[in-house]
């Protein structure tokens, strides 16, 4: 094992654990639920931007996305830039109104908001189950990405890399809670920018410049430099579907929407939008371009998901390769810790406190212990599922993302902006959306060549509107609560 290569990663892991211990001190004598799950709503603009970018930028972005670009070509780089407005959309659509109402109703989780808006146990329970199942699937992707990264870069076996990575993530997340998650996200965003820039520069130097690299791609396959990509995969219906799945639909991702609860004030929101959009653009373009150009440097990769760590080892000196090794590790850890915290909050806050412990006895003892237990159980389940990894992990990640969007997008957005939205309409939308998405995905049905998310969201919207109009409107108290600015 190359110590010069591993040193930046070791330094990064020590810093992360240090932040976790520092953040745990804020819980002493305070409200455990507010501090552990939402960080007492204290994020500034930089931290807000970085936590959104780092949460969204995951193993799929650093490992799976460049792997797809390696296989398909420069067309995938253009397609990936569809994700550019995600921070702006999330904070612009949800940010201000979400934060105001969350403070009014003391919401700590997304399901707290759904309960305040729809007053429906069925909506909360369905939302909770969806979050837990989908997060397990997406966390499997992150664990696979982290293990493959360590396997390729250090020579450890896949199983050894998986155990090392899982142990670090679980320890850090359990210790720190939400405050540690968002504080380290700022650190992770900086590391990701440095690592991406270093790798892209190394590829350009190793390939004798961009024109020569593009020429090499043409020699391998002329379609690698065409908008349609190798295999003519990037058709118009696919691109429309991708635009919905990874851009517009991101507003419905619970772990991104939750960030709207935790910022400090309007100034932090506006700074977050600007900084987050710029950082997201640099990361998305740099990562995917590196993957596409990497085909000219290493044309014979058996697994596209290994292209980024393999490029790191090929074009960078060991110490700089170590910096890049920390970059995707930062992206992966930032997504896992966010999802573990929210899944734990869903089990403890949304289900246990609300339905299994109506008398709320001895919460100061039970809640910390239950949070720890839930995190460990979920982490163990994800670890077991990751022991047999599939190829092209980006598709598993996108499948789980689509399921979350089919359930949450319209209840969140229409709940904020349509006064007539009610509980039956939200429940009908969630059920019809996830059933449609599951059926189309399971049997590979593509209506008019579209990804399953497009008809699922269309059906969910139509069902929401029709059922809401055919059933009684929400109480006036609920409408006033959500209409006041």
Q: Which descriptors apply to this entry?
A:
transport; Na/Glc_symporter_sf; Na/pantothenate_symporter; membrane; 77% helix; transmembrane helix
Summarize it.
The chain is an all-alpha fold and 485 residues long. 77% of the residues lie in helices and 0% in strands. The radius of gyration is 22 Å and the shape is globular.
Distance between the termini: 58 Å
Integer average pLDDT: 80
Silhouette? globular
Number of strand elements: 0
Q: Rg to the nearest angstrom?
A: 22 Å
| Proportion of strand residues | under 5%
Number of H/I helices: 20
Structural class: mainly alpha
Instruction: Classify the helix fraction into a percent range.
Output: over 70%
Largest sheet: none
Order of helices and strands: HHHHHHHHHHHHHHHHHHHH
Which regions have little confidence, pLDDT < 50, spanning 5+ residues?
none
Characterization of the model:
The structure is a single chain. With 485 residues, the chain is mainly alpha-helical. It is built from 20 helices and no strands. The termini are far apart.
What topology does this entry show?
Layout: H1 3-24, H2 32-38, H3 45-56, H4 59-72, H5 74-80, H6 86-105, H7 110-118, H8 121-154, H9 158-206, H10 210-220, H11 236-246, H12 254-257, H13 266-297, H14 307-315, H15 318-356, H16 363-385, H17 393-417, H18 423-442, H19 453-470, H20 476-483
Helix pairs in contact: 1-9, 1-15, 2-9, 3-9, 3-13, 3-15, 4-5, 4-8, 4-13, 4-15, 4-17, 5-13, 6-13, 7-8, 7-17, 8-9, 8-14, 8-15, 8-16, 8-17, 8-18, 9-13, 9-15, 9-16, 10-13, 14-15, 15-16, 17-18, 17-19, 18-19
